[in-house]
């Protein structure tokens, strides 16, 4: 069994689970770029209970050999169902699972309306029952919990909640420094993350406002966390893991990707996602391409054309054309110097 300490020794900067973003092909890319651990998109235990073999669930549960072992994130509000489904996933996924993470931080209305996600921060007793049940069901695999600063500023209970989850059997805790009411607006409160770190004995992973290698180092220095979780900072930028590890482990600032490398990665990602999810995955790839080309010359035009692409052939042709444009653009700039 891989322990939390073993996982963090492989890399302290982790890829956060993001619904609709961190499908297996992207996770594999981030792992190759240096992510210490990747997480599946959150999977509903209730959904698995009623339709365990649905196409949607099967896609969410696919773990690329390149990212193995990975964390599996589940969510729900019924301790019995959560434990049963986690146990079945152990049998289903075997050695590809590093740990189970329980989502208690998702702020989406349709999730919290069922008492799931960040709503569990308002029912800490139930949250503790869930952690205890899942931990017993999947032992000796570690169980971790991801949660937020609190439901709102008036009920910011992250420290008390963290102690409760640790007592219930959580092997590590991931804290996002925003309340549920904030969603992803405003600034993440790193002070709360530091307070959680000081309040518990298990490893703590910080999350929120990590958009660069320097941010990752700053979070560790300011909060003392054992690891850093990167979410939006990895969108269109899987190189953040390579850069953060170089800065953390060697104190070295390495150059980021060139414009051409960014588009070539978008092309690689596109091909892998279509192989994974079929031709229709081109639609889901559009947002990724938009992130990859942000800030590059001609990016607005590229986004417009990409958003009109319905097949991989169309998307590939557009990106290859853009790579040629960038090469000519760079050449023209050099000639003008």
Q: What does this 3D model show about the protein?
A:
There is one protein chain. 47% of the residues are buried. Helix 7 runs parallel beside helix 8 (158-168) and helix 8 runs parallel beside helix 9 (190-199). Mean pLDDT is 95; it is low at 333-337. It is globular, with a radius of gyration of 20 Å. It has helices spanning 4-9, 24-32, 45-50, 55-60, 79-93, 109-112, 124-138, 158-168, 190-199, 213-223, 239-250, 259-277, 281-292, 299-306, 312-335, and strands at residues 13-15, 43-44, 70-75, 97-104, 143-150, 172-179, 204-207, 227-230. The chain is built from 15 helices and eight strands. An eight-stranded parallel beta sheet has the order 1-8-7-6-5-4-3-2. The longest helix has 24 residues, at 312-335. Helix 10 links the parallel strand 7 and strand 8.
What CATH calls the topology of the largest domain is TIM Barrel
In terms of DSSP E residues, the strand content is 5-15%
* Name of the CATH first level of the largest domain: Alpha Beta
The CATH homologous superfamily of the largest domain is named Aldolase class I
Q: Summarize model confidence as the mean pLDDT.
A: 95
Number of strands: 8
- The helix count comes to 15
Order of helices and strands: HEHEHHEHEHHEHEHEHEHHHHH
CATH architecture annotation name of the largest domain: Alpha-Beta Barrel
**Main beta sheet, described?**
8 strands, parallel
Order of adjacent strands in the largest pleated sheet:
1-8-7-6-5-4-3-2
Estimated structural class = alpha/beta
- Uncertain spans, ≥5 residues at pLDDT below 50? 333-337
Taken from the alpha-carbon principal axes, the silhouette is globular
> How big is the Rg?
20 Å
Percent range for helical residues? 40-55%
How widely separated are the two ends? 57 Å
| Count of distinct structural domains | 2
